[in-house]
Design brief:
Elements: E1 6-18, E2 22-30, H1 45-58, E3 65-74, E4 82-91, E5 96-105, E6 108-119, E7 142-144, H2 153-156, E8 158-162, E9 172-177, E10 180-182, H3 189-194, E11 214-215, E12 220-225, E13 234-242, E14 247-256, E15 259-269, E16 271-272
Parallel strand pairs: 1-10
Antiparallel strand pairs: 1-2, 2-4, 3-6, 3-12, 4-5, 5-6, 7-8, 8-9, 9-13, 11-16, 12-15, 13-14, 14-15
């Protein structure tokens, strides 16, 4: 990993070519800031998902479309170092389309992501239903370092604030990062906040972590959005449930400075550590 001020740096201009469908190929290299928690030589899913979202947005960009769902399947270890992101449209349409990115590192495809993009519609305000309001505003929360119990460069790069009702299995707080997603490039609030969303799995563990406790990496991340988010702070109102057969589900409501904007789900594999 290089030692930069961003999570990733682009190592070659994006290459877009067309056969039957347009394909965008981008090459990156990770930095120490993207380092993961479970192993020293792997990447944290959070900045990786932000990187992929940036590529999904850049592919055949349409200003009249908004992203409604993002889904990520983690197919293998997210290796540090060189990253290759390949993006294509797999279901084109005039009002709805499905775009897919794959990420290759360590010589294999390790992540597959899909985004449903929908044509933006301007609704009558009376047609908009009230959204949840289950999180204390960021300015009323207090700085907290409990997330720093986790190792790795990514966790070291973020700052957190928690609400008075934050507790194990019941996360209530905000997270932000001062590190660029891609060196020298301006990315959207959607990409920047999605580079933080995977932390929902670890902000308020319901089980003790590490030696004598448990590990609980997630194998996926799915997000449903009702609008494009804004700002630099991501609010998380999380809950975690663990079953008797080693499966766990982390669910989170997602907030920004304007309020609620979506939900996330993660499937955990829960394993005891001797």
């Amino acid at each position: 990993m290089t030692d930069d001020t961003a999570y990733f740096r682009r190592t070659a201009p994006a290459d877009t070519h067309t056969s039957e469908t347009a394909t965008r190929v981008s090459l990156f290299e990770s930095t120490r800031h993207a380092q993961g928690t479970w192993q020293e030589d792997e990447l944290h899913m959070a900045p990786v998902s932000g990187l992929v979202v940036a590529e999904l947005e850049a592919h055949e960009k349409r200003d009249d479309f908004v992203t409604g769902r993002l889904s990520f399947d983690i197919l293998g270890k997210l290796h540090e170092g060189k990253q290759k992101v390949t993006t294509r449209t797999i279901r084109p349409g005039r009002t709805i389309e499905l775009v897919e990115s794959t990420l290759e590192s360590g010589g294999r495809t390790v992540l597959r992501a899909r985004a449903w993009r929908l044509q933006c519609q301007k609704l009558d305000p009376e047609a908009i239903l009230p959204s949840p309001s289950n999180l204390t505003p960021v300015e009323e929360c207090v700085a907290d370092d409990r997330l720093q119990q986790w190792p790795g460069g990514f966790i070291a790069s973020v700052q957190t604030r928690v609400a008075h009702d934050h507790a194990a299995g019941h996360g209530r707080g905000w997270i932000a990062s001062g590190v660029e997603l891609i060196e020298g490039e301006t990315t959207s609030s959607l990409a920047s906040l999605m580079a933080l969303a995977d932390t929902a799995n670890g902000v308020a563990p319901v089980l003790p972590a590490g030696k004598g406790g448990y590990v609980f990496p997630n194998v996926d991340l799915t997000l449903h959005l009702v609008r494009e988010p804004v700002g630099a702070w991501l609010g998380l109102a999380t809950s975690t449930v663990v079953g008797s057969e080693g499966l766990g589900i982390n669910s989170a409501e997602l907030y920004d400075e304007r309020g609620f904007f979506g939900r996330s789900e993660q499937l955990q594999t829960v394993r005891p550590v001797p």
